[in-house]
Amino acid sequence: MTLVIIIGCGAIGAMTAYELSQVQGLQITVIDKQPPAQAATGAALGVMMGIISGKVKGRAWELRQTSIRRYETLITELEEITQGQIPFNRQGILKLCTESEELEKGQQLAEIRRSQGWQLEIWDADRLLSHCPHLSDRFYGAIYSPQDRQVDPTALTHALVTAAQGNGVTFKFGVNVEGLATSDGGRCLIQTNAGNMKCDRLVIAAGLGSTELTKSLQKTIDIRPVLGQAVEYGGVSLGNQEFQPAITTDDIHIVPVGDCAARTRLRLRDCAARTLGERNYWVGSTVEFPTATGEIVADPRNLQVVKEKAIAICPALADGAIVKQWSGLRPRPEVAPAPIIGHMPGDDNILLATGHYRNGILLAPATAQAIRKAIA
Questions:
Q1: Banded model confidence at residue 259, pLDDT cuts 50, 70, 90
Q2: Domains of the chain: residue spans and CATH
């Protein structure tokens, strides 16, 4: 029996645990100092820009298309196992274009995607407003990606934990890792506030915490925080309720959220207050880097800019009430491209699944499959 320990239970750690739980001969434990789906996962909007992204080849594209394919079966699989519902928007992503050059580039991308077996549609301004009359008329058109998705990150992570537990994975929360070491035999020693633990394979999926963990091994993986703020508008009626894709433009996302019964972020009293044809929308997010001294604090002026841009896109948002606003820190590698997936340099028994920056939810399935391949 091979003992595997995963540090971190955000979307990446939970997805990796579930993927590895399907491999015979592994005894898996996940540890985290917090409950599941905190930190970057708990703050994410879950918009998965895979097909509509500008990545067309190499590792970045392969990770994206692998994950998009897996999500099509994964959500149904998890819902059957957990007997619960995961808010999962299958109505695609609509990228609005403010210049004609964006549509031309979109057409070129659509041709590439067609050759790769994927679909993108190019909409002119008339078609855009006929499908989405709630949008401003200032756009030249849009690129519609019917095969991209959006998922509730918190609901997804909790479902992964439940499914992995059903397959024998042990989860230990409230466990703080204080140091790492390796023995001559290659085993890993994890020093924690709950005692020492040993394993044959260690997976570091700790996001921003990965820097300190690797530092204790004298192999520092430098990951820096990038703050993002988002807001939730409640009681808004935007366009045709039968067609509600995630909308994106100018780095602003407007995300319709699922039914109240399937939501984790909407309080019951908000559900009761909702009228027919109204729903809630997540809007985000800012991109805020640390100061020269390393400080990073949410600036309300940046969130105000996001809200103003969102209302300029969908004027009806101004009629909604702000239900909630939140912020989170994304893990961005300082000197390496995101994400960092694979063996720790010089140590085949330690694997890294971290530093996904703004694409952790999107790339979680492909990351988990890569770790499974490396271990199995």
A1: low
A2: 1-90+148-222+334-376 (3.50.50.60), 93-146 (no CATH), 224-331 (no CATH)
